[in-house]
Design a protein that fits this description.
The chain has 525 residues and is of the alpha+beta class. The strands form six sheets. A five-stranded mixed sheet has the order 3-2-21-22-23, sandwiched between helices. A four-stranded antiparallel sheet has the order 7-4-11-10, with helices on one face. The protein has a four-stranded antiparallel sheet with strand order 6-5-8-9. Strand 21, helix 9 and strand 22 form a beta-alpha-beta unit.
């Protein structure tokens, strides 16, 4: 799911949860402490504007996400063979409590597994959904974890995976040391299409690959992507059979071809070996449309071609035939729907016209233009995710870079972000803040709700210099974070004072750093 700087997905009018406001400071010659705030809605109405009938309310912000898992360079724990990896997927319910969502299949003798099993879960963009992936070397046929060797684990959030689309991280041991050179990759795909493809497949006269017996064939179905072929399904192994019949199976249409029946798919056939080094029998490419057209009469048949064998052997015809006896697109009626009008939502406006976002806006300057835009647009927008901070920070930084041409201390920008604490692009946000620390801008973050704000406190940098993920240090502290609920009973003046406490020093430090003086007032004639 791709998002742009305004938080939209697939060009739909859906927006991420933080409320964003840009303030431009105009300085005068009198004193840096007396700064007049010239407010600019700063594309706020453009960000919040959305199509839809007046008064309509969006449904709850939830979507189905399919997660697929692969690993590289796993630790080899077996003395006379390679590890037999299996990945266990956990989600965090509360505190330190984890519950098991499911397990992948076990792959024999493989240090670079690509698991075929996927996990489909609900993604709530406004919630922090913690995930944990634990990889084991399984030596028992029952896949019991007792006695299994620990190969490493990864903890992350679902928002991080969805934001990147493909998240690759090092595997860690229990004491947080690297698990050798092992890495794990989690791919996320939004499931917006509930159609599935039902297959019944067989093989005929496949090549014999085993010297003392027949082949043990299995099939792998691949989806074509921008970066290559992605595994969509792996069948079971049919032992000792050159004319196998595989069990019927289903593949989500979106996983197989992105919902496009004219898009190429690839089907590989292998002879299974216990060593993990499977022998390639052959392959072919087709489309769902071709399969359906060919199977209208009886069955679709495709020659299984081994290109290396074809080059070496004169008169080579094929390495067998794959028969697709049944291919039907069906609809899987599953889904989640909700109503954001429920009071549990931080955006819920109660009968008194109040919610925490509005209170935070009122407390920081009583900026009625933004309040009006927020109230008018909230019923019409479709909130969405992921929640990325870096695009809007970089957007405001563009104004800051233009202001670097100033010869006097005349322009300074303040970005106000009101958020529930969720952030899905932490590394990119750290880099954006480090880059922005060289520009005439500050960032104020107000946290609403009762979520975990540790990420916001980290960005504040009060406990030390903020650094990017690559170690680059910020030139100066430009972030101020304030949790709204600490000031709920203290009045708006206390909140405003805390929010703006560091701003004068941040403004003065920037202009002093670049030796910029306030503009001269025009002399009287």
């Amino acid at each position: 799911m791709e998002t742009n700087a305004l938080g939209t997905a697939h060009n739909r009018r859906r927006y991420s949860s933080p409320t964003i406001l840009l303030l431009q400071l105009q300085t005068s010659r009198q004193t840096p402490a007396k700064i007049s705030l010239r407010t600019s809605v700063c594309d706020f109405q453009a960000v919040m504007a959305a199509s839809g009938p007046p008064g309509s309310r969006p449904t709850e912000c939830v979507t189905k996400v399919a997660l697929s898992i692969s690993c590289k360079n796993l630790l080899d724990m077996d003395a006379f063979s390679k590890s037999d990896p299996l990945c266990v997927f956990f989600m965090n319910s509360s505190g330190s409590q984890w519950w098991e969502v499911g397990r992948t299949e076990k792959i024999m003798n493989c240090l670079n597994p690509t698991f075929s099993k996927t996990f489909v879960i609900d993604y709530y963009f406004e919630m922090v959904q913690k995930l944990k992936f634990v990889v084991y070397d399984i030596d028992s046929d029952s896949c019991n974890l007792e006695g299994a060797d620990f190969l490493g684990e990864l903890e992350c959030t679902l928002g991080q995976v969805v934001s990147s689309g493909k998240l690759t991280r090092p595997l860690l041991m229990k004491d947080k040391r690297p698990a050798g050179k092992g890495t794990i990759t989690i791919c996320a795909e939004e499931r917006t299409d509930n159609r599935v493809v039902e297959f019944e497949c067989a093989g005929r006269q496949l090549d014999k690959k085993d010297f003392f017996g027949k082949s043990d064939p299995f099939l792998e179905f691949y989806k074509q992507t921008e970066t290559g072929w992605q595994l969509a399904h792996r069948t079971e192994v049919v032992k000792y059979n050159l004319n196998p019949v595989w069990r019927p199976f289903r593949i989500p249409l979106q996983s197989l071809c992105g919902g496009d029946v004219e898009k190429s798919i690839k089907i590989d056939c292998y002879d299974y070996n216990n060593s993990g080094s499977h022998d390639f029998i052959g392959s072919f490419q087709t489309t769902l449309s071709q399969i359906q057209q060919s199977s209208l009469t009886y069955a679709a048949e495709f020659e299984c071609i081994n290109s290396k064998k074809k080059q070496k052997k004169k008169g080579y015809k094929n390495s067998g035939v794959i028969v697709i006896k049944h291919c039907k697109i069906a609809i899987d009626f599953t889904g989640s729907n909700g109503d954001p009008r429920f009071p549990q939502s931080l955006h819920y406006i109660n009968p008194h016209g109040y919610n925490e976002y509005l209170s935070a806006i009122w407390a920081v300057g009583s900026i009625e233009g933004v309040v009006t835009a927020y109230q008018q647009c909230l019923p019409k927008v479709k909130l969405y995710g992921p929640t990325n901070f870096s695009p809007v920070i970089n957007h405001v930084a563009h104004f800051g870079r233009q202001a670097m041409q100033q010869e006097t201390a005349s322009q300074y920008f303040v970005l106000l972000i009101i958020t529930d604490g969720v952030i899905t692009d932490m590394d990119e946000t750290r880099r954006a803040i480090v880059n922005a620390s060289r520009l005439p801008m500050s960032i104020i973050i107000v946290g609403v709700g009762a979520a975990d704000f540790s990420a916001m406190e980290f960005l504040d940098g009060d406990d030390g210099i903020l650094r990017s993920a690559t170690g680059e240090a910020a030139m100066r502290d430009i972030v101020q974070f304030v949790p709204f609920r600490q000031f709920q009973n203290a009045g708006t003046a206390a909140l405003a004072q805390s929010v703006l406490a560091e701003l004068p020093d941040q403004v003065a430090s920037f202009f002093n750093l670049f030796h910029l003086m306030p503009p001269r007032e025009p002399t009287s004639p």
